[in-house]
Amino acid sequence: MPDTPSAARTEMQKMLAGELYRAGDPEIQAAAAAAFAWMARYNASLALSRDERRALLREGLGAVGPGSGIRPPFHCDYGFNIKLGKGVFLNFDCVILDVVEVTIGDDTQIGPGVHIYTADHPRDPETRATGLEFGRPVHIGRNVWIGGKAIILPGVTIGDDAVIGAGAVVTKDVPAGATALGNPARVRG
């Protein structure tokens, strides 16, 4: 849709393209309601087998690689923008705000209470007061380990084999093989 002027696009199309959009749009609200209904089922699935939970994950997420799993409770905005590689694991109580794409590479391990945000807001107070929002994608590489309660902010890319310390607030890209700790997270030698 690069030729289509922004004004001619739906709010959902703007959201998915990372442009300013109105989250209260009926189409977007319907997608959120569908995700909330799916999450209610998924979050009640703790007693089910891994295979049964994985089948539910495939219903709600954009892609779920073989052997991937999420321990409930889990929360997201829409689900269809989340893509998990093979062998990905998210522990209890993770949150992914997925207004645009979130990709998590093969064999990545994510601790309890980790939050991943793609949703963002204008820095200009007048634009922000209009209620417009936008998103920036998050990409997490292969074999990454993210410690509990870490927060990954919009637009961040984490390279393969990186380690993110527990409680870290990741505001910038983390190179492959690096360890990032603290708030804001800093790469340690």
Describe the fold and architecture.
With 189 residues, this protein is of the alpha/beta class. It has a single domain, classed as Hexapeptide repeat proteins (UDP N-Acetylglucosamine Acyltransferase, domain 1). 21% of the residues lie in helices and 27% in strands. The chain contains 4 helices and 20 strands. Strands 3-6-9-14-17-19-20 form a 7-stranded mixed beta sheet. A hairpin with a 4-residue loop joins strand 19 and strand 20. It is globular, with a radius of gyration of 17 Å. The model has no long low-confidence stretch (mean pLDDT 95). This is Nodulation protein L. Residues 12-66 form the Maltose/galactoside acetyltransferase domain. Acetyltransferase implicated in the O-acetylation of Nod factors.
What is shown here, in short?
By secondary structure, the protein is of the alpha/beta class. The protein is 21% helix and 27% strand. The protein has one domain: Hexapeptide repeat proteins (UDP N-Acetylglucosamine Acyltransferase, domain 1).
